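Researcher: We're teaching a course module on how sequence relates to structure. For the next exercise, students receive a sequence and then see the predicted structure as tokens, so they can try to spot secondary structure elements on their own. Here is the exercise chain.
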Amino acid sequence: MLLLVLFYWKVLFEGNVFVFVDASRFFYPLWKWGSVVLNQGLIPLWNQDAQFGTPYLADPQTACAYPPVFLFYSWLNPINAFSALVLFHHLWAMEGFWFLAKGQGYSSKVSFWGSLVFGFSLHLVCSSWTPAALMTISWLPWVFFSAERLYQKKSGGVLFLSLAWAMQLSAGYPVLVYLTGLALAGQLGWKSWKEKFSSNWIGGVGLSAVIATLYNLVWGLPFLEFLKNSNYQNGSSRFQDLNFINLATFFDPFILGHPLAGNYQGPHYWVATFFVGLPTICLLVWGLANRIYQKNTPWLLLLFLVLSLGSNLKIGEGLKMILPGYALVIHSGFWISLVILWVVLLAMEALAYLMEKPKLQSGALLWMGVAAGVYATAFAVKNDHFSACFCLSFALVLVAFWIQNQSLKWFAILGALGLSLLPAAYGLNITLDSSYYEKPSLVLSQFNQPGRLFFSPVLLGSAVKLQGQTMNDAYENAKQNLYPNWPLAYGKEEVPIYNTLQLSDSFAWTFQVFQHSLKESRKAIDLLGIRYLFGSSCFKDLKEMKSSGGSAKVFENPSAFPKWFSVSQAIAAGQTTNDDFIKADQDNIHYGNVCFVENPARAGNYQKRQVAEISRTANSVVFSAVGKGKSLLVSSETEAPGWKVWVEGKPRPVEKVNDAFRGVVLDEGESNVVFKYEPLSFRLGLFFALLICALWAGLLGGWIKTNFMGLK
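Model: And here is the predicted structure for the students to work with:
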């Protein structure tokens, strides 16, 4: 605890916040948006402010079914809640490793050493840049600890394993949970093989997996519904395989560069770096040379290392053909958590062996050779820590072998680790002053009209590459330019969102229309309700606004449509979206008067009405349409499964208009319309989640009764 307090001193006592990479450009604004809805007493099923509307709860990385997110954002303001989640889960990961180590029979000192290595490995430290990954990884040791209890037939095995697994799955990174299951099967399979093929654990593990899955159907079923209508069909192509040089990060964490260095374009560190401190590698290699491993098999580590190289090796390509969904998790970064876990477990077993057998003089040459080889390799790959710390760490590793006093030996090993690991970890603990989140972008003060914000493709591409003379300059520039998803943090609506999971219809429509022609692009700007454009523009009738701190130009569109309006004519949609663009271009169709409708029976002429929005929540919109005759109301809000409409209190079919958006037909005398997002998938998933919570309550009560009955 004290080490974490010192490590996060600036966050705890100086008000700094986590900003690096996806922390600020994805998780903070999205989670803040969700917390606002939650504090209104609503479940954020739908995000109406992002890309014409998109599912919110169904996106795993919003972690809506993960209790700590709900609790922290209920108790604290969004900035403090965001920081508290990172701090808590870093501690939770170290606590989990402590219990895992103690459960395998290690002493308190050795368990503490292992927790220190696991907790300050660069993989875990840098996971704060992707908080959902940190939350998921933090449950990894708890899952293995609970599985060990189940394997040993201790009471509560199914309860604790299913609970730990369910929390890991709801924390936001399902692919890591998939790998955890594969690794757990490998570990327990190895243990049962050692014990002459004991298989009593299979039923308990399988039941735990089923329970954990049923709880997560509350977001899992909406996710599957979302997935089939999303642009994520080629998800595996979005990741970059790592190469053999990434294994060199075991010896030098910055061999591929430092993220704060100028023009750094390397990978995210949590998916690219194996560094656990040089003394850890010394112990691992020494243990392998002495063949001391009994508690955990090094063969699993070898397998994880091979798989961590992704499709660079044929074994990974082979598994893609055998295991369902493996193509999405073949990439190196997703395996590093398990690599680190196994490296630390094996190094810890070597440390325990070294501590328990102080008179190992016959192995002195081997120890010296291993230590010299590891540190020489680090030096050869240009370890950035070749300094006093590097030399002192090497000296302590060497002398630890001959120290007879266990306490001194322990301090020598601990000191060597700290000198090797902590400087690198602290150098990647990147934060900024809390004012970065507290003070809105200056340009927001100029946005006086309702409407969406749009970012040019060039500007959107540059959002991935932060630019500035210093880190503060780069992030301030990103903030002032309102890069996605920043507008969501301040109650604004944006067209593009920084997320790989987006509804395919509206995403494809927007992409295609801006590729079709300048004329159609200009008409689309109006139809989509885009009021403000960031970046260079070819449109001559937009009003350029005064600069307010950002480097991007900002333009106002004076003719943006409201979200809901009526048209005078509907044309049956063509076979493809592009067919509709061609017709709209040739016939010079004005989207304020004419729309394309998916149902040919709805094609024809209509009476226009005055549409006025009455109220709106995240999951609903209520408006009136005053006028006479049959009317077709159209919108620039995404049509998706789960949206229902009532006209004068009676259900009415939702019409799909302009290839991607919602509409509704009103008859004479009808004017009151209510749209609600009520996906059956969520209701069914919620039923299973509540059922599992009741099951856990019953199992917990039974466990307490069994283990604590009679205790005062």
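Model: If you want an answer key for the exercise: The mean pLDDT is 88. The two ends are 30 Å apart (CA to CA).
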